[in-house]
């Protein structure tokens, strides 16, 4: 039976438990095309994953307005229980918000593949759909190339209108008159009233923004009301327009312009489409023209994830069982997100890479027109190079200024360790040779890759840049870029939303976050009761309980065990009474001797008492060994005194322990606290405003305060790592408060941003950025002198879960001993009953009466005269006389209790007196 169970367990482990499974969750709102693309992409990616297996877990998204977010949350909890490492969807905005919040909390990548104009930059979100602001720019460029002077926007809903606000503003700035109309305000499906209204206005140019499932009906009703003739021109913004059957409108002579991000004529797109729709009989021909943008983005997203998984070891992918109601999160989640963000992939939707904010702002679009012969492409649009119309007519083609070869840049930096520093040398140096550091060397590596020249200038006040609230002008390096005093800026320049609106940034060359710099904790003195530290309180309580239970068990089993009732006179074969060594005090003394590992003069005789004593000694052996081992660990460990552990405890204990705290004045860290909506961070910023003396102008001053005083300095993690490599009394406390990066800054709409970002990604992929970081953080300028001392884990008291096994051994041993003593007792009663000819029931009662007489350790030996009937017929005097005579023959040995009047021996004080009197007389005669 045991081997069958073992075999079943092995089969279960091999067949069911798949340690290499990578679970990917998805909610696609019931869209069958997206679910099919998701499943197909995972199956395709598994062919290239060695030793790993991606698994699709699809949950149906709830569309109920009231219960939708709650149901989505519950389904997300189910997916978390399955151990997902990434989440696709959902589709509805009200459901996206709750899923995004859960992914942020658990640090699980949240992947979107559709247009979401309310997407914000968070730690977990990855939206593969083109960034809406850049799409708006594409719309604007196309309309300008079409030379429309006035037009009407026909939008579907609020989400659609949000995407067009920037288009309206930009075109109105170019003196283009824009009219806005909603197609179907009450979602009745009848667009004719508004179409008739715009027709009567005399407008002939229209921009249409609606869902792809509604687009054919909109075009059909436009044809019905007479808006599909040669006099009208349409620009349709939906990226899937080409996937619909536009044959009914090919011969209307209406100029219809559309855009797409998926090229159906691409060999790769055709290959993927034919495989994905191979079993779909409804799509037999031109499958590539039916592949929608969302489905293509899902395939690209899965492929990028699988590419990232190939670079991750299996231990990092072991996410475990993260519950919704716990505070646990995936430690490798943000690493996976950053790995995807910083990688590139050429997929169905073109080249995919993300900007510093995590959005896909660099993409290419194809521009096409609907003609009688088909849908020819007439141009392209690219985020970096703009629009390029290739058909006959007006050609809008911006000069290619993106090449960096043989260009010369003025690069501004600051003397901030380790990004820019003066070389320590006795020689007189000039020009760029005067400087060294991480940023200096990074620019040099980029110049070698792209072939440009550079000249460094220094910002003496080390200010990165701050916008004046009154004038709106920027100071520091940002202002130098805007005023054309420099072309590039590199230092510990944090990418923030305000700065990104003023200047452009490359892809981050370093990711970081805000943390706390403070002195290392002191060591706590040992407590008076430090000897009790090796065991937890519950362990000590359980030990005391075990001692008490074992002592009582020995006492009870000693009285019940036949072998423990011994003959006080070994020379007499048939004594009239027996004695027992297991008194109440002796039982506790025996347990005490075992507990102290000293033993005692009491030795158990019966099998049950010996078994109980054996398991008690085994229990003490394990407990004492565990105590000794853990005591050594406690004596060798000095527990630190942590005044705080994270930002919350810092704010809570600052007044109690007189801890001052602050950040660099005017820096990105202060801006973070100022703009945060977190109540705790707002409280910190208020404290900073009220204590300006705790806001140093430079990081070096803050480091000095942290080292010499009771001062906590909010600082970026990369700078803290640099400081703690050189100041051994300081360390970083708590987790990162945010997620951001350092980038190279340049003027807005600079043509060099894409080239520099690509070069940085190449350096990152080759490991050169890691080498630079290691060089300037751990090797140069005193780095590495505070190497980790191999911090050992603090000794922790042993709880019940650590020693519960030996408790169970003791309990089960005692239970076995109880059964044994009962069996022994029954066998003994049977033997006595047969020998004395007394009934079993009567014998059992007499024996039990002797055992329950806890006032005496003496028990009479039953004989035939002790039968129930004989004992009742005999007079009390005969019994006393007889027992007195027997007592004189067999005196009670010294040290045992003399049976009382009520005891089974029925002896009394008179017989005892006679016994001692007879002894005295003999003594006198002898003398």
UniProtKB/TrEMBL annotation:
Keywords: Cell membrane, Disulfide bond, Glycoprotein, Ion channel, Ion transport, Ligand-gated ion channel, Membrane, Postsynaptic cell membrane, Receptor, Signal, Synapse, Transmembrane, Transmembrane helix, Transport
Biased amino acid composition, Low complexity: 900-915
Signal peptide start and end residues: 1-19
UniProt-listed CDD domains: PBP1_iGluR_Kainate
Residue ranges occupied by any Ionotropic glutamate receptor C-terminal domain in the UniProt entry: 408-779
Molecular function GO terms recorded: ligand-gated monoatomic ion channel activity; signaling receptor activity
Stretches with biased composition (Basic and acidic residues): 863-889, 918-927
Location of region: Disordered: 863-927
Name of this chain's protein: Uncharacterized protein
Organism per entry: Brassicogethes aeneus
């Amino acid at each position: 039976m045991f081997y069958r169970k073992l075999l079943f367990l092995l089969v279960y482990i091999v067949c069911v438990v798949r340690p290499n499974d990578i679970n990917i969750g998805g909610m696609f709102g019931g869209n069958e095309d997206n679910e099919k693309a998701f499943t197909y992409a995972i199956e395709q990616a598994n062919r290239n994953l060695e030793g790993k297996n991606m698994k699709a877990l699809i949950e149906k998204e709830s569309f109920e307005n009231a219960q939708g977010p709650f149901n989505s949350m519950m389904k997300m909890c189910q997916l978390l229980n399955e151990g997902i490492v990434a989440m696709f969807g959902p589709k509805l905005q009200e459901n996206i918000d709750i899923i995004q919040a859960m992914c942020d909390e658990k640090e699980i990548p949240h992947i979107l593949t559709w247009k979401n104009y309310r997407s914000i930059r968070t730690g977990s979100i990855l939206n593969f759909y083109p960034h809406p602001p850049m799409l708006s720019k594409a719309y604007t460029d196309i309309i300008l190339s079409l030379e429309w002077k006035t037009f009407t926007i026909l939008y579907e809903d609020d989400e659609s209108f949000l995407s067009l606000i920037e288009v309206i503003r930009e075109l109105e700035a170019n003196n283009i008159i824009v009219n806005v109309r909603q197609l179907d305000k009450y979602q009745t499906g009848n667009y004719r009233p508004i179409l008739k209204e715009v027709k009567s206005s005399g407008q002939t140019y229209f921009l249409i923004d609606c869902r792809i499932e509604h687009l054919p009906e909109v075009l059909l009703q436009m044809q019905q009301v007479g808006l599909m003739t040669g006099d009208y021109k349409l620009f349709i913004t939906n990226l899937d327009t080409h996937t619909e059957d536009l044959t009914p409108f090919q011969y209307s002579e209406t100029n219809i312009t559309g855009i797409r991000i998926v090229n159906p004529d691409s060999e790769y797109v055709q290959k993927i489409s034919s495989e994905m729709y191979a079993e779909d009989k409804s799509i037999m021909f031109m499958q590539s023209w039916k592949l929608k943008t969302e489905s293509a983005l899902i395939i690209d997203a899965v492929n990028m994830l699988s590419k990232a998984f190939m670079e991750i070891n299996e231990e990092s992918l072991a996410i475990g069982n993260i519950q919704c109601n716990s505070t646990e999160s995936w430690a490798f989640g943000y690493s996976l997100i950053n790995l995807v963000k910083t990688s590139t992939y050429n997929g169905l939707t073109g080249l995919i890479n993300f900007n510093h904010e995590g959005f896909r702002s660099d993409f290419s679009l194809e521009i096409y027109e609907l003609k009688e012969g088909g849908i020819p492409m007439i141009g392209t649009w690219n985020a970096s190079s703009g629009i390029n119309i290739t058909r006959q007519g007006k050609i809008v083609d911006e000069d290619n200024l993106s090449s960096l070869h043989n260009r010369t840049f003025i690069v501004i930096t600051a003397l901030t360790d380790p990004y820019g520093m003066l070389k320590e040398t006795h020689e007189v140096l000039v020009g760029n040779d005067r400087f060294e550091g991480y940023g200096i060397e990074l620019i040099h590596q980029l110049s070698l890759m792209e072939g440009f020249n550079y000249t460094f200038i220094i910002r003496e006040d080390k200010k990165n840049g701050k916008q004046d609230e009154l004038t709106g002008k920027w100071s520091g390096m940002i202002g130098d870029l805007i005023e054309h005093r420099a072309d590039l800026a590199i230092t510990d320049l944090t990418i923030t939303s305000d700065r990104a609106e003023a200047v452009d940034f490359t892809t981050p060359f370093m990711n970081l976050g805000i943390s706390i710099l403070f002195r290392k904790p002191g060591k706590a003195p040992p407590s008076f009761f430090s000897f009790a530290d090796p065991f937890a309180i519950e362990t000590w309580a359980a030990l005391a309980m075990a001692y008490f239970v074992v002592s009582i068990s020995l006492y009870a089993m000693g009285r019940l065990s036949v072998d423990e009732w011994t003959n006080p006179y070994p020379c007499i074969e048939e004594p009239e009474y027996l004695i027992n060594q297991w008194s109440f005090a002796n039982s506790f003394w025996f347990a005490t001797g075992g507990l102290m590992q000293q033993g005692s003069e009491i030795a158990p005789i019966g099998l049950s008492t010996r078994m109980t004593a054996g398991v008690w000694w085994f229990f003490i052996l394990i407990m004492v060994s565990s105590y000794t081992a853990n005591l050594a660990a406690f004596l060798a460990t000095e527990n630190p005194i942590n005044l705080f552990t994270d930002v919350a405890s810092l704010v809570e204990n600052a007044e109690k322990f007189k801890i001052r705290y602050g950040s660099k004045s005017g820096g990105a860290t202060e801006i973070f606290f100022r703009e945060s909506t977190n109540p705790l961070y707002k409280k910190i910023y208020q404290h900073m405003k009220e204590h300006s003396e705790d806001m140093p102008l430079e990081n070096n001053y803050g480091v000095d305060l942290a080292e010499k005083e009771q001062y906590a300095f909010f600082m970026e993690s990369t700078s803290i790592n640099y400081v703690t490599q050189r100041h051994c009394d300081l360390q970083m406390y708590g987790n990162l408060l945010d997620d951001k990066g350092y980038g190279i800054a340049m003027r807005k709409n600079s043509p060099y941003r894409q080239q520099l970002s690509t070069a940085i990604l190449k350096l990152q992929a080759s490991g050169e950025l890691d080498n630079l970081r290691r060089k300037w953080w751990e090797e140069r300028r005193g780095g590495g002198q505070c190497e980790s001392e191999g911090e050992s884990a603090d000794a922790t008291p042993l709880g019940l879960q650590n020693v519960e096994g030996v408790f169970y051994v003791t309990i089960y041993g005692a239970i076995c001993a109880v059964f044994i003593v009962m069996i022994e007792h029954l066998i003994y009663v049977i033997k006595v009953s047969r020998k004395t000819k007394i009934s079993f029931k009567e014998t059992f009662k007499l024996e039990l009466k002797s055992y329950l007489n806890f006032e005496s350790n003496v028990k009479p030996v039953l004989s035939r005269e002790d039968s129930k009937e004989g004992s009742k017929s005999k007079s009390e005097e005969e019994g006393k006389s007889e027992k007195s005579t027997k007592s004189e023959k067999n005196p009670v040995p010294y040290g045992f209790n003399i049976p009382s009047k009520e005891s089974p021996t029925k002896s009394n004080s008179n017989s005892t007196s006679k016994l001692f009197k007879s002894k005295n007389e003999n003594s006198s005669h002898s003398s």
